[in-house]
Specification:
The protein is of the alpha/beta class. It has helices at about 15-30, 45-50, 65-75, 90-100, 110-115, 120-125, 145-155, 160-165, 175-180, 185-190, 195-245; strands at about 1-5, 35, 60, 80-85, 105-110, 130-140, 170. The chain is about 55% helix and about 15% strand. The structure holds adenosine-5'-diphosphate and magnesium ion.
Length: about 240
């Protein structure tokens, strides 16, 4: 199971909107998906109630200690993707979710306040050695403001922009707000619109990133187990030689 967490201290940056949009995009791409709500404000639960359709389960988990065991149960049950929406600020639940994630997505509008608010989330992801990416959300269609924001984020992470900034950028459009209001995801509300296109594109970018991480982790596991095997063989050889002498 892949676990994605949407987190940043700043409210209104688009955590819940992106969680819902990505959940439906992933579902339409063939994944089994569950939305996990750790924000007591209940944006996802309220959206679910408006939806009148239980095809996408929203599961509230508000206590930090419940997050790891519940994610493990969902993984054991064969679920393919858990998307965790978190509250503004940096709660114990958010930290626990980041700690057990495969990818931490940090949304930011192209504004100084939003970018500054990513710092604490970034440090939690780094402390637990979790992969992360920024998602620039509610951007104008084009302009210097976006380039400045993207460059500041790359500087903050001290990493190459290609690696750290998810693509495409998500433009500010009414479809996102209207879909949320009607209990739909943007790819259901206006499937042929530009916003739906961007969210599907963002999901594809995330999928590639998750696969890369999984392959890297597999390779690391293989190298570690090969090294373990060699150490074991060498130890046995040394023991045999001691016996023989
Ligand atoms: N790309 C976007 N275009 C237009 N409105 C957006 C976009 N992303 C989010 N919004 C709107 O901004 C507001 C805050 O988004 P929300 O997802 O609730 O943020 P958060 O969960 O980070 O507090 C909501 O009204 C939402 O509909
Ligand atoms: Mg929210």
């Amino acid at each position: 199971m892949h676990t994605i967490v949407l987190a940043t201290q700043k409210g209104g940056s688009g955590k819940s909107t992106l969680a819902i949009g990505l959940a439906l995009a992933a579902k339409q791409a063939g994944f089994t998906v569950r939305l996990i709500e750790t924000d007591p404000q209940g944006t996802l639960s309220n959206w679910q109630r408006r939806r009148n359709n239980d095809d996408l389960v929203v599961e509230p988990i508000y206590h930090a200690a419940d997050i790891e065991p519940r994610l493990k149960m969902l993984a054991d049950s064969g679920l393919q993707l858990a998307i965790v929406d978190t509250a503004a600020g940096l709660s114990a639940a958010t930290t626990a979710a980041i700690r057990h994630s495969d990818l931490c997505l940090i949304p930011a509008r192209p504004s100084v306040a939003d970018i500054e608010a990513t710092v604490s989330t970034l440090s939690v992801a780094r402390a637990w050695k979790r992969p992360y990416s920024f998602v620039l959300n509610q951007t104008p269609i084009r302009g210097q403001r976006i380039d400045n924001a993207a460059n500041t984020l790359a500087e903050e992470a001290a990493l190459d922009l290609v690696e750290v900034l998810a693509r495409p950028l998500i433009v500010m459009r009414n479809d996102h707000q209207d879909s949320l209001a009607s209990g739909l995801a943007v790819s259901e509300f206006a499937p042929n619109g530009k916003s739906a296109d961007e969210i599907r594109g963002l999901w594809r970018w995330i999928e590639t990133r998750l696969e890369l991480e999984a392959t890297t982790n597999d390779l690391i596991d293989q190298v570690i187990s090969a090294a373990d095997g060699m150490v074991h063989a060498a130890t046995e050889l040394a023991a045999d030689e001691t016996l023989a002498s």
